[in-house]
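User: Once you have settled down, look closely at the record that follows, taking as long as you need, and be ready to discuss the fold:
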Amino acid sequence: MEILQKENPILREKAQEIDLEDISSAKIKKLIADMKKILEKQENGAALAAPQVGEPLRLFIISEKISGDEKTIHTIYINPEITKLSKKTEWMEEGCLSVKGIYGKVKRSTNCNIVAYDENGKKFTRGAGGLLAQIFQHETDHLNGILFIDKAKDLQQEEK
């Protein structure tokens, strides 16, 4: 399993919801485990959405590097839905594991609320600001077939 790059048509599909009874299935458990392994190997990856590994499903995971020791941060988001976005927005620097070496600025809400299911099928709500709010919006875009480069300004190629 590898991270698909921007040319792959799967990244442009709207991902399908996961049936709640399928959350505990071997397929979803394996997908989550595989995604965690891939994300752990990324030096600067904050999160990973299932379409990025070729599975057009509404699921993303957040790196434990981001959540750190804070146990209140869920790392698995199944069928996530942003329920509230702040009116206040900022241009935020972004990159993406599916758009290697390109960075730009995206206008994002500074705060948001998200509702999702965890890996045990338990529904939860999470409010976030700053980096976490940005991640929620970036990953939800992935689930809707949108890449950050579709919204970004000041795109720059990273120097090697």
User: Anything to note?
Assistant: The mean pLDDT is 93.
